[in-house]
Design goal:
- The protein has a six-stranded parallel beta sheet, with helices on both faces. A four-stranded parallel beta sheet has the order 6-5-7-8, with helices on both faces.
- The mean pLDDT is 96.
- The protein starts with a strand and ends with a strand.
- The relative contact order is 0.21.
- The protein has two domains: 144 residues, Rossmann fold (3-Layer(aba) Sandwich), CATH 3.40.50; 113 residues, Rossmann fold.
- With 267 residues, the protein is an alpha/beta fold.
- Helix 1 links the parallel strand 1 and strand 2.
- The longest helix is centred in the N-terminal third of the chain and has 16 residues.
- The structure holds D-glutamic acid.
- D-glutamic acid binds next to helix 3.
């Protein structure tokens, strides 16, 4: 069990923000990743469809030897909420780990939340923040175009298209004088440099994927489930659409070539 893999899923490459952090924090763990690239975006769909996709993603991961599941997707985490979703092994979404970090670091209690339409509509981050401290101010904004820009590799800090979209979404938020911004969809930290440039360098950015990885480490440690492997763990990626496109875009984000470790698979 200890040396089983950690299963991570997202609708696309956003969950790589969790994988990157897991590789730093837990270099001896094997990771099985599923990116449902044939059905992305999740964030513009109904709750019923998102929940069905999420269940199928979990079933796919269960075909492998896994000891924990991370829903590295703000949309799935928001729709699942507090419902019992995976109960027979450790499980986490990204909302609570991100909110815990945001609420711990904010100095002014003014927090921004970006997310997909489904995430913002659910109010998941806002509710969790208010559970932590009801007096905190929360400004939320749905940013649906970011997912497509990231999936298509429009991620460079000087990309004029992505910058224009970021300004459209973020300039109104600037007026809210937030000091902390939760990038509530796991795709958004892939363009964190550009977002920081537009919102201002003094605003602290929170990556939910990375925070979920920290939570996973603590959780596995707690349960005595950390791997005792001495060699470096292996990442294996499955995607439901183009293997080549995923490997190409992932290379820029992970700064390593994963071609050869990406396989095509359908849920
Ligand atoms: N990466 C996902 C999230 O965190 C979903 C993006 C999408 O499929 O719309 O919300």
């Amino acid at each position: 069990m200890k040396n089983d893999a950690i299963g991570v899923f997202d609708s696309g490459m956003g969950g790589l923000t969790t994988v990157r952090e897991l590789n730093i924090l837990l270099p001896h763990e094997n990771i099985i990743y599923f990116g449902d690239t044939a059905r992305i975006p999740y964030g513009s769909r109904s709750n019923a469809t998102i929940l069905r996709y999420a269940k199928e993603d979990v079933e796919f991961l269960r075909k492998h030897q896994i000891k924990m599941i991370i829903a590295a997707c703000g949309t799935v985490s928001s729709v699942v909420g507090d419902q019992p979703f995976v109960t027979d092994m450790p499980f986490t979404g990204v909302v609570y780990p991100a909110v815990e970090e945001a609420c711990s670091v904010t100095k002014t209690g003014r927090i921004g939340v970006l997310g997909t339409p489904a995430t913002i509509k659910s109010g998941s981050y806002e509710k969790a923040i208010h559970k932590w401290n009801p007096s905190y101010f929360v400004a939320s904004k749905a940013c649906p175009l970011f997912v497509h820009l990231v999936e298509n590799g429009y991620t460079a800090i000087d990309n004029p298209v992505t910058r224009l979209v970021a300004e459209e979404y973020l300039l109104p938020l600037k007026e809210q004088e937030i000091d902390t911004l939760i990038l509530g969809c796991t795709h958004y930290p892939v363009i964190a440099d550009l977002i920081a440039d537009v919102i201002g360098k003094d605003v602290r950015l929170i990556s939910p994927g990375a925070e979920a990885a920290k939570y996973a480490k603590a959780c596995l440690d707690n349960k005595g489930l950390l791997s005792d492997r001495t060699e470096t763990g292996k990442n294996t990626y499955y995607v439901s659409d183009s293997v080549e496109l995923f490997a190409e875009n992932a290379k820029h984000f992970l700064q390593t070539d994963i071609t050869g470790n990406v396989y095509s698979s359908h849920v």
